[in-house]
Write a structure and sequence with these properties.
Blueprint: H1 2-6, H2 10-21, E1 26-33, E2 39-46, H3 51-59, H4 67-70, H5 76-83, E3 88-93, E4 101-108, H6 111-118, E5 137-143, E6 146-152, H7 162-167, E7 175-182, E8 186-190, E9 194-196, E10 202-208, H8 209-213, E11 221-225
Parallel strand pairs: 1-7
Antiparallel strand pairs: 1-2, 2-4, 3-4, 5-6, 6-11, 7-10, 8-11, 9-10
């Protein structure tokens, strides 16, 4: 989406600015882990509060290619990539275009299969955070009752252009949230953006989308089960 917004001229961004300031979205990942490392994963990008702005962007596209906004809701690459991975099954497309929801889920046999799914070509493609992004790390490691998640992108070294700085207003309130559910209780959960829920079986890592995308924060965490 960031690449899409950057394509618009400064004058267009000035018109869009009031919509940007009142729009937001959330990227969410949700995992359910069994004791043997198998489980299910769901990925969702909630653009429901930004549909008015996206529709206006579509009508003002200076390239004449209005399919750029529509393509945000395409999950086909992700679903096809996942279907080719051994240990990934029960793949479901949960998207609702009219509601502004991009979402899919799947089951994984083990941590190895999960890591392959996160590195697949279509993973999170709508936001440009697929497994192929240079310098990014997105993986799990399971060692006994300890699960470690490493999720970050390299820190941005370049100063934003005028258009980029204006487009970032859209992302100011956006968040990236990861929720982990376990059958057993959690003994300890650590990470700069990580908290352990009161039920002791749910761990949440969350940060601002813009901080994450610029490498100013990460979603790394270590979870030790009882």
């Amino acid at each position: 989406m960031l690449k899409l917004i950057k394509r618009f001229k400064t004058t267009t961004l000035l018109v869009l600015l009031p919509f940007m300031l009142s729009s937001c979205f959330e990227v969410s990942e949700e995992y359910y882990f069994e004791n043997d490392g198998s489980g299910t994963a769901t990925f969702t990008i909630d653009l429901s509060q930004s549909m008015a702005m996206l529709n206006l962007m579509k009508s003002m596209d200076t390239t004449g290619n209005t399919n750029q906004v529509d393509s945000l809701f395409e999950n086909q690459d992700a679903l096809e990539s996942l279907s080719q991975i051994d240990g990934i099954y029960n793949i479901k497309n949960l998207s609702d275009t009219s509601a502004g929801i991009i979402s899919y889920s799947y089951s994984f046999k083990n941590i190895e299969a999960l890591n392959k799914s996160l590195a697949s070509k279509g993973s999170n493609s709508a936001l440009g955070f697929g497994g192929s992004q240079e310098g990014s790390v997105n993986r799990f490691v399971k060692n006994g009752k300890t699960i470690t998640r490493t999720l970050y992108v390299p820190k941005s070294q370049d100063d934003p252009t005028e258009e980029e700085a204006m487009s970032e207003a859209f992302f100011d309130d956006a968040t990236w949230k990861v929720t982990y559910h376990f059958s057993n209780k959690v003994k300890k959960a650590s990470g700069a953006t990580t908290t352990l829920d009161k039920d002791k079986k749910t761990v949440v890592s969350a940060t601002k989308f813009l901080d994450f995308s610029k490498g100013r924060s990460n979603l790394n965490c270590t979870i030790k089960l009882k």
